[in-house]
Design goal:
Length: about 400
């Protein structure tokens, strides 16, 4: 629990955040703040350490990789995933991983249309400023690390399938709070300024004392500007008004006067990328080539991408919108969150996408980022990926290395 809060205003002044008589009131009570921080802590699941254990000494002659377990940890919690590894320099020298997956979900983060304040659930709405214009976010607030609290109670989207009593409605409260955030009428409180624990310290709070509502957003997913508000695309952008959402992989980008960097992240709709446990593990780094395979009885579909984002310690199998579209050979326009969710590939439900008898795998090739030369366009990733896949296949005797690795993987 953080220290008593009288110091908040002093700390805010020290770090450059406004603290007027009005803004001094724009914070939750100590009890509510403690509860909010505790709830934000429970959602902090980002992987922090990866180790490869239980490596089998035997190597498949055709696959040329070792069976192992990839153990991903977050504090005292961990989960292991079966993988195949290439270790040319010994057990600690992991250069490549191959994993057979049953599911690849969609990561919209980085997409220009990922999140919008007028469309918190990604269901599409008319623009209040330009009524004929539709605002269609590709994901919902919860997946972007955004939370809304009334007092200490988290407000959620009502679940029509739930028979339990729902928390007070999210949408009516958000509709009243959002204009105050959009028009910068309130003063953000970055939790790092009050010594919040790891995880919650990445959040900024925006509190409206009149209604006792608090908006919390994770600045690792929705970056904050110099004044602590969510970064948004400007009027000169095709994504004007949408939140800027981040990927862990960062490109070079100009910095606007408000501190936001709109071109810094990978666009999920345009760049095929795979979500990996951490920024670096073994000999693999963000930006290295990552290739997806979806093999059906009739065809083999290949998605050429890069390792572009990091995810929770207990889930491995997530790709950008462009990555999953490539695996599914899908060319339709993705309009909203429901469309994005329809790209989730789950082999436990093969009939939904006509994937009966299919198998799926990913291959990550360490040390290949440099080959892209800083060009992370889909076309260049495909060019380099095709050459590296050809090289990987030819490194084993015979012509069936991919099939052999699919068979060898658990």
């Amino acid at each position: 629990m953080p220290p008593p809060l009288p110091s908040i205003i002093a700390v805010a002044i020290l770090f450059g955040y406004p603290a007027t008589a009005a803004s001094a009131q724009q914070k939750p009570s100590e009890a509510d703040l403690a509860s909010i921080i505790e709830q934000l802590s429970s959602h902090h699941r980002e992987g922090s350490r990866v180790e490869f254990v239980d490596i089998d000494a035997a190597i498949s002659r055709t696959c040329r990789m070792n069976v192992a377990a990839m153990k991903v940890s977050r504090g005292g919690d961990s989960k292991s995933f079966p993988v195949l590894v290439d270790r040319p320099g010994g057990p600690s020298d992991i250069r490549q991983i191959f994993a057979k997956l049953g599911r690849i979900t969609v990561d919209a983060d980085g997409g220009g249309r990922a999140y919008h304040g007028e469309d918190p659930f990604g269901t599409c709405t008319n623009s209040p400023d330009q009524p004929p214009k539709r605002i269609c976010a590709l994901d919902n607030f919860a997946n972007g690390g955004m939370r809304l609290f009334a007092g200490a109670t988290r407000l959620k989207r009502p679940d029509p399938k739930s028979e339990a009593a729902e928390a007070p409605a999210f949408l009516p409260n958000w509709r009243e709070l959002w204009p105050l955030i959009r028009d910068r009428k309130l003063v953000p409180l970055p939790l790092w300024t009050i010594g919040a624990p790891e995880g919650p310290r990445d959040f900024n709070l925006i509190h409206w004392s009149e209604r006792n509502l608090t908006f919390a957003f994770n600045t690792k997913i929705i970056p904050a500007d110099r004044n602590g508000f969510p970064c948004r695309y400007g009027p000169d952008s095709e994504y004007s008004g949408y939140f800027i959402s981040a990927t862990t992989f960062k490109k070079r980008s100009r910095t606007r006067a408000d501190g936001c960097k709109p071109q810094q992240y990978l666009d999920s709709e345009r760049v095929p990328f795979l979500v990996v446990p951490t920024e670096k593990f073994g000999g693999i780094d963000l930006g290295d080539i990552a290739i997806g395979f979806l093999k059906t009885p009739d065809a083999l579909r290949i998605a050429y991408g890069i390792a572009g984002d990091t995810g929770p310690y207990d889930h491995f199998g997530e790709g950008s919108i462009a990555f999953n579209k490539a695996l599914l050979d899908e060319h339709r326009t993705i309009e909203n969150a429901a469309d994005a969710d329809s790209l989730d590939i789950n082999l436990a439900e093969p009939a939904r996408l006509h994937l009966e008898g299919a198998s799926m795998a990913v291959l990550v090739l360490g040390g290949t980022k440099r080959l892209l030369g800083g060009d992370y366009s889909a076309a260049n990733i495909r060019r380099v990926g095709e050459a590296q896949l050809k090289r990987w296949i030819s490194a084993a005797p015979g012509e069936g290395r991919l099939n052999a690795c699919i068979e060898a993987a658990h």
